[in-house]
């Protein structure tokens, strides 16, 4: 069994709505090994995004254990959470969230500079990643000059720029037409595997989910599938 990049135990999250307690996650357990790509399948509102927010240390209010690269992170303070996100995690969302005033290459350079890379190394890494995603001729274009598929490819390159151990993707092709979504997904999976990162992909698209190494269904706050 490969070394665990992510290990979640008894993860729970509930909300109060109209005086009623709603249990979104009810003791979720999952282990993802190095280089493994896992999908989290479920309809909208099933708790997929809530789980990714927990694992990505983007929201509080959870109980349970979250270990990333062997470090328990669930109870870390804000500065330490920021360090984990910067050094160990990459994020891809349904909407690209690119910086509109910067070029495609600059959007991939910036997170590397924040981590401490030299400008020359960051520029080289960004150009290489974007070229591998078929955007070598679009490096200097701003997001508004790119198609939806191209924007999402830039977002994928940005997520992998700092060589994260784990990429968290929330409906990464949900804003694209089917043909473009298939192409971007194939490129995303190929690049993640080439980079040696693990990935957890939340989606409602069963066809997409079946292309990953393992598939889980989130049902009534619990995961159904092979967790180890």
From TrEMBL:
Signal peptide: none annotated. The keyword Cell inner membrane applies. PROSITE patterns: ABC_TRANSPORTER_1 (PS00211), ABC_TRANSPORTER_2 (PS50893). Residues 6-228 form the ABC transporter domain. The keyword Membrane applies. Keywords: ATP-binding, Cell inner membrane, Cell membrane, Lipoprotein, Membrane, Nucleotide-binding, Transport. Gene3D superfamilies: P-loop containing nucleotide triphosphate hydrolases. CDD domains: ABC_MJ0796_LolCDE_FtsE (cd03255). GO terms for cellular component: membrane protein complex; plasma membrane. It comes from the Bacteria. One of its GO terms (molecular function) is ATP hydrolysis activity. Belongs to the ABC transporter superfamily. Macrolide exporter (TC 3.A.1.122) family. This is Lipoprotein-releasing system ATP-binding protein. The lineage of its organism: Bacteria, Pseudomonadati, Pseudomonadota, Alphaproteobacteria, Sphingomonadales.
């Amino acid at each position: 069994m490969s070394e665990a990049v992510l290990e979640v135990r008894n993860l729970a999250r509930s909300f109060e709505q109209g005086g009623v307690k709603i249990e979104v996650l009810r003791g979720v357990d999952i282990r993802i090994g190095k280089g493994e790509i896992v999908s989290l399948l479920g309809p909208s509102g099933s708790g997929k995004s809530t789980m990714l927010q927990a694992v990505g240390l983007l929201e509080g209010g959870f109980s349970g254990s979250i270990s990333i690269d062997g470090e328990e992170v669930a109870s870390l303070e804000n500065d330490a959470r920021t360090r984990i996100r910067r050094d160990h995690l990459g994020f891809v969302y349904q909407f690209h969230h690119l910086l509109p005033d910067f070029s495609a290459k600059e959007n991939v350079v910036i997170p590397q500079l924040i981590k401490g890379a030299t400008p020359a190394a960051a520029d080289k890494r960004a150009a290489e990643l974007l070229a591998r995603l078929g955007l070598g001729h679009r490096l200097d274009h701003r997001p508004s000059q790119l198609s939806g598929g191209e924007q999402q490819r830039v977002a994928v390159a940005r997520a992998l720029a700092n060589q994260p151990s784990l990429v968290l993707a929330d409906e990464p092709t949900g804003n694209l037409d089917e043909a473009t979504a298939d192409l971007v997904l194939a490129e995303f999976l190929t690049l993640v595997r080439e980079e040696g990162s693990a990935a957890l992909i939340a989606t409602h698209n069963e066809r997409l989910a079946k292309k990953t190494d393992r598939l889980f269904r989130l049902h009534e706050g619990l995961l159904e599938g092979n967790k180890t």
